[in-house]
Specification:
Number of strands: 6
Mean pLDDT: 88
Low-confidence stretches: 1-6
Helix content: 55-70%
Length: 219
């Protein structure tokens, strides 16, 4: 029984070791990166996690169940995958919408309050008291607006750096491709870099658009 277990373990290790260097793709075929290693469960020898070298050169370990990974002949497919960049844009978009709606709501109340004063529907001392409270609230949200613009600028700087690094690495690999010195792992990396650059540029454009929306509200 012990011999059978070790034999099965070696067989499983050999089977999954052949995926090292293979591409990891999303369900729609987008290249995420390449496999560095696969961790197997000690109890049933099934894969539990996959460490991937991403297109930007960083590494990340994914839980097999979380991404619903499937192992095909020449690649690993993540059926469920939410990349950090899309999540980041969605987070900023929700925050921008919240700030924008709050500032517009305050301005709407200030305008209605002024109309009410002109129509003689409110005493001046009460008007001043309510207006002062609304202005304080508005200042608070403008401060949050400016803080969010600063956070988006920091993220844009990080994305610009990643774009520069990816472009430099892509140039290195393309030179190797021209001279016929590009290995299989590097071919997968090159494909992943193209996907990464497209994604980063799209995220950069979306963040610039969100920043412009905030600037209209803050200034």
């Amino acid at each position: 029984m012990v011999f059978k277990f070790f034999s099965s373990a070696k067989s499983a290790e050999k089977r999954f070791r052949r995926y090292v260097g293979k591409p990891v793709v999303t369900n729609d075929g987008k290249v995420i990166g390449t496999v560095i290693s696969i961790k197997l469960s000690r109890s049933d020898l099934r894969p539990v996690s996959i460490t991937v070298r991403l297109g930007d050169g960083s590494t990340r370990e994914f839980n097999v169940n979380d991404v619903n990974a499937t192992f095909t002949a020449d690649k690993v497919v993540f059926q469920k995958f939410s990349d950090e960049y899309s999540s980041l844009v969605n987070m900023y978009r929700n925050e921008v919408n919240s700030i924008r709606e709050r500032l517009r709501d305050i301005m709407d109340k200030l305008n209605k309050l002024s109309d009410l004063l002109l129509q003689g529907g409110i005493k001046e001392d009460l008007y001043r008291d309510i207006r002062e409270r609304l202005e304080k609230e508005r200042v608070k949200w403008i401060r949050q607006c400016n803080d969010k613009i600063g956070a988006i600028n920091d993220t844009l700087s990080e994305i610009d750096r990643k774009i520069s690094d990816a472009e430099r690495r892509k140039s290195e690999l393309m030179i190797k491709q021209v001279v016929g010195d590009l290995g299989d792992d590097e071919k997968n990396e090159l494909a992943g870099l193209d996907e990464l650059l497209n994604q980063l540029r799209k995220v950069r454009s979306e963040l610039l658009s969100l920043r412009m929306e905030l600037e209209k509200e803050c200034y």
